[in-house]
Description:
Chains A, B: Keywords: DNA-binding, Transcription, Transcription regulation. Chain A is an alpha+beta fold.
Amino acid sequence: xxxxxxxxxxxxxxxxxxxxxxxxxxxxxxxxxxxxxxxxxxxxxxxxxxxxxxxxxxxxxxxxxxxxxxxxxxxxxxxxxxxxxxxxxxxxxxxxxxxxxxxxxxxxxxxxxxxxxxxxxxxxxxxxxxxxxxxxxxxxxxxxxxxxxxx
Amino acid sequence: xxxxxxxxxxxxxxxxxxxxxxxxxxxxxxxxxxxxxxxxxxxxxxxxxxxxxxxxxxxxxxxxxxxxxxxxxxxxxxxxxxxxxxxxxxxxxxxxxxxxxxxxxxxxxxxxxxxxxxxxxxxxxxxxxxxxxxxxxxxxxxxxxxxxxxx
DNA sequence: CGCCGAGGCGGGAAAATTTCCTATGTCTAT
DNA sequence: ATAGACATAGGAAATTTTCCCGCCTCGGCG
Lengths: 151, 151
């Protein structure tokens, strides 16, 4: 599927505020309801537009600690990797996980209520899968957060 | 503002799918339209519920490279910090930025079209603000991604 | 050069949803 | 037990989404 400038403007508006009405989006992109609706429908079908969610205030809900966890492992067999992956998927405090190129094998972003909760998470993880080396970076302050792609 | 179990269920539903109708949410949390609507309104006013956005398929839109950037700096004056912060805010490829405790001072999550675009970003950044040491971790594969908090 | 077909566009109408009001119910503290 | 504070259900009005239809534009083709 190909995306033109109008599609990009629509995506940009949706990222800014997905609760807008079609009329508002249409006005913002300089078109009218129906074409905008058709484009959104097509992009949804193509999987370019995925789920619609809300941004919550993590601090207000008691999630006051964010850690980035750098993981090195000596195990690289398929079985180990599968178990590791499942462990991450199953733990809701893991907000993001990437397999990396180079020296460090994995990075996790972990959101928890406090440092104690992080330790509980850490103990549970290393008891499930063997890892060679773990470094935790504690966030003092979130300077920027956005999910918006620059279109 | 205090949050009870019903509020948490509502938030959970909204995180799962913010496009649901009030009736659907009400059914899911075992209540009816109006109370759900009032609770959502109050949580919005309190800032617990923030913006509503869509999740886009970054790969399909040509953003194929994600880097985590670890930054050490020798400068810790207020002025340097302010300039650094502004530089990050101004760059749309920076999706996330944290000030850290310990050895490493900052971590960034940077999303770009390709490695070349990362290099352009990197050159631009270090020409704006002086940093002591930069390590870039390239993501090979995003194993997990969610913004949902475990309520 | 004109014609034809495909596809996007705008208007509008029906269905669904949100928003808001009112009356009723429930829980707590004294 | 009772008053007060607050949450709830139902429903009505306004807004929004969804979808249908006729029109216009733009490409290729005779």
